[in-house]
Amino acid sequence: MRFYVPMIAAASLIALQAYAQNNPAPSPAPAAPAPTAPPAAAPTPPTGTETGTPATPSTTHHARHHGRRSLQGRFEAANTAHDGHLTLEQAQAGMPSVAKNFDAIDKDKKGYVTLSDIRNYYAARRSARHSTSTHGGMSSGSSGSTQ
């Protein structure tokens, strides 16, 4: 009998080791969960719903490929109230170029601008710049080449 007790103990240890190798122990739970910031919202690709035209894959790819947000993405990020209206304070915090030109963009003096207002302002500005640059040197009818 005195040999049985050590043999049972040794057999138990061997069996326990074999069991532990086949069944990994559960990982211990952390003492306190680490504070984490909520995940940032991913920029949404432009949908073109404001203009009624679908977004082209090339513009969506271009905005993502270069790490820049589209105008719509920047507007949505700055519009913290998510009401489609960007106030001067929101523009100052999230769209400095819109804040700088806020009075010119807000033609109706509503106190806010919409994505459509911003697009119209930039389109008019591009058009004005384009017309002054094309009329500066040659007349608009001459291209410098003959056919």
Keywords:
disordered C terminus; 2 strands; two-stranded antiparallel sheet; rod-shaped; 147 residues; Recoverin, domain 1; 7 helices; mainly alpha
Report what the structure shows.
The chain is mainly α and 147 residues long. It is rod-shaped, with a radius of gyration of 33 Å. It has 7 helices and 2 strands. Helix 3 packs across helix 4 (88-94). The chain has a domain at 68-134: Recoverin, domain 1 (Orthogonal Bundle). The chain has helices at 4-22, 57-65, 71-78, 88-94, 96-100, 102-105, 115-134; strands at 86-87, 112-113.
Radius of gyration computed on alpha carbons: 33 Å
- β-strand amount: under 5%
Please tell me the CATH architecture of the domain at 68-134 by its name. Orthogonal Bundle
Major beta-sheet overview: 2 strands, antiparallel
- The name of the CATH topology of the domain at 68-134 is Recoverin, domain 1
Which helices and strands occur, and which strands form pairs?
Layout: H1 4-22, H2 57-65, H3 71-78, E1 86-87, H4 88-94, H5 96-100, H6 102-105, E2 112-113, H7 115-134
Antiparallel strand pairs: 1-2
Question: How would you sum up this structure in a few lines?
Answer:
The protein has 147 residues and is an all-alpha fold. Helix content is 49%, strand content 3%. It has a domain at 68-134: Recoverin, domain 1, CATH 1.10.238.
